[in-house]
C-alpha cells in the first residue's frame, strides 16, 4: 500500500473523531461543534451533535460570502427539449431564497416534509435547496415511479406539500405528471395540504384553484428568505429506497455530517477543485443525483451540470461527448449501463472523434457492477482513468474507491478499489468469523459509520437496527457479498438479499412479486434478476396459475407486465412474465430462486439437496428455452 493514501486511511480508522473534526473545519457553521461523536447509544451514533449549520448556506451563501457569487454554479442542458441555461451562485441563491419564501407562504415550516416529483430541470434543484434553506425535509421521488410508489412515500413521510411539474420527457413520449400525482393523492391515506406545479412551456395543465398553485403564482408575492439555523443532527432529506419487501425504506440524512463528508469527497475522491466543471449523469431521484448533481459539487463551490437527456437517442451516441466538450467538463460520474449503451450504438467511437475532450480527466462509474470489458472500452476511447467505485443510498458517498485526490492507485479490473477513509470494511464468512484475504463472505463495515451515512430510517429506528445492525454485532451489513484481496482491493460480487440493479436503478424483486401476487389468476410467483448485456440485470417473473384458470397464458403475461408498470413504474423495466406449471422449492416450501437464476444465466448449479422434486428444474429449463431466455 502506498504511503500517502495508507497514512490518511489509517488515521481515519484509528482516530475518526480527530479526522472528521479536521474535515469539519472546512464547512460553514453558525456554531462549531464541540462534541464530535456521541457513541453512547449504539448503533445510533451522532456526529457533530452540538453543531449548528444549514445545508443551503453551505451550498450557496458561503461562496457568495467568499466573493465567488459570479461563478457559475449550475449548467442546465436538455438535449431532449433543446433548452440550455446557466446560473451563477448569486442567481441560484436568489431563485432559491424566493422559492423558500414561496414554500413558507404555503405553510411549510422547519421539519415539515416536502415531496419533490419532478423531471431533471433546474426548478427541481431549486426546490431541494429551498427546503434546506427553511429547514424542511425533502423527499425526492424518481419520475419513473408510478402513482402507487408516490402514494406510499406520501403516506410514510406524511408530507405537507408536493412540488411537481406539468411533465417530463422520455425519448418518444411525454410523461404527464399531473394525472400520476392526482392518482397518488387519491390513493394516499395521508392528505397533503398543497401542490405547487411548474408549468413547462407548451405543456401547461389545468390546476384546481383550491389547493394547487403554479410555480410562478407561488413566487408572485414570495419574499427572499434567509437560511435558518439547524442542529447538525436534524434531517436534510428522506430518500426512499427498495427494501426486501414492497414497503420502501426511508433513508434519512442528517445535516452536519452530510455537508462535512460530501465536501471532503469532492477533493479527496474526485480531485475536484472550486474552479472545475463537474458532471454527474444520473437523476436527482437517485442517491447519485442527490449527492453528486446537487449537494457535493455545490458544497465544494464548483460548477455542476444538470443533464436532461440520455446517453443514446438524445439525439445520438455523441450526447455525452458533446456535453463534456461544450462545457469543458473535468470529470464525469455515471452508471456503467450508460457506457454500455454508448458502446452498443457506437462501438468504434465515431461520434467521440467529433468532439474536443482535452479538458476531460477522469470517468467514475458506480451504481452496479462495472464489467471489465466496458471499463477497458472506455479507457481505450477516452484515454483517461476509468474508476469503478462502490456505494449505496444508505451511505450517500463511496465506501470504496480510488481516491484520486489523495493518490491515484492502479486499476484492477473487476474491483471497486480500496476502502475509502472513514470505512473499516471487513468480510464475514457464513460461520460468522472474519475472512482472510481472498475469502468470500458478507461485506460489512465496522461501526460507527463515518459522517454523511444514514443515522437511522425515517420513523423506523427498530427496522434500522434489526435490518442493518443486528446480524453482525458491531457492524453495518451492506447486503453485498465479495472479498478483499491481498492488496486490500474490494471485489463486490453480488447482493445477498432480493435487490437487483436494472440499468443502475435499484429494485426489489420482492416488491415485484407482491404486485404479481395481486393478479387474480396467480397462485404463486418468483421474480429474479437475470444477466443482461445492456442493463446489467433484468427482472423476469415466473408465475404459477390457480387451479381452474383457463385464460390464455399470453393474456396473463401481458396483464402481469401492465400491473408492474402501473404499480411500480416503467423504471422496473419488467417486460417478461412466463406462466409455468410449478416452482422448484425446498422440502420446507422455500422457492429456490437462486437455482432458477443460475439456470436462466446458464451458470453451473448444484442440485439443492433439500429440493422437493428435482424434475421441476428440467421443466423450468425448457420453459426458459421456449421463451428465448435461455439458448438450447
Ligand atoms: N421518468 C419517467 N420514466 C422514466 C424515467 C423518468 N425519469 N427514467 C426512465 N424512465 C422509463 C423509460 O422511459 C423506460 O420506459 P419504457 O419502458 O416506456 O421504454 C423505462 O423507464 C426503463 O428505463 P431504463 O431502464 O432507463 O431504460 P431506457 O431504455 O429508457 O434507457 C439507458 C436505457 C441505458 C439509456 C438508461 O438506462 C440510462 O441512461 N442509464 C444510465 C443509468 C443511470 O442514470 N442510473 C442512475 C443511477 S446512477
Ligand atoms: P443504490 O443504493 O441504488 O446506490 O444501490 C446500491 C447497490 O448497488 C450496492 O449495494 C451494490 O449492490 C450496487 N453497486 C453500487 N456500486 C457498485 C459497484 N461499483 N460495483 C458493484 N455493485 C455496485
Describe the protein in words.
The protein is of the alpha/beta class and 632 residues long. It has 18 helices and 31 strands. The strands form 10 sheets. A 7-stranded mixed β-sheet has the order 5-4-17-16-18-19-20, sandwiched between helices. Strands 7-6-8-11-12 form a 5-stranded parallel β-sheet, sandwiched between helices. A 4-stranded antiparallel β-sheet has the order 23-24-25-26, with no helix packed on it. The model has no long low-confidence stretch (mean pLDDT 96). The two termini are 47 Å apart. Adenosine monophosphate binds next to strand 26.
Nutshell version of this structure?
This protein is of the alpha/beta class and 632 residues long. Helix content is 32%, strand content 23%.
SSE topology:
Blueprint: H1 3-14, H2 16-24, E1 37-38, E2 46-47, E3 52-53, H3 55-65, E4 72-78, E5 83-88, H4 89-105, E6 113-117, H5 122-134, E7 137-140, H6 147-157, E8 161-165, E9 167-170, E10 173-176, H7 177-187, E11 194-198, E12 212-214, H8 215-220, E13 230-231, E14 235-241, E15 249-254, H9 255-268, E16 277-280, H10 287-300, E17 303-307, H11 319-327, E18 331-334, H12 336-345, E19 362-365, H13 372-382, E20 386-388, E21 400-401, E22 418-419, E23 425-428, E24 441-446, H14 461-468, E25 475-484, E26 490-495, E27 499-502, E28 505-508, H15 509-517, E29 522-532, E30 536-545, H16 553-567, E31 576-580, H17 593-600, H18 615-626
Parallel strand pairs: 4-17, 6-7, 6-8, 8-11, 11-12, 16-17, 16-18, 18-19, 19-20, 30-31
Antiparallel strand pairs: 1-2, 3-13, 4-5, 9-10, 14-15, 21-22, 23-24, 24-25, 25-26, 27-28, 29-30
The chain binds coenzyme A (COA) and adenosine monophosphate.
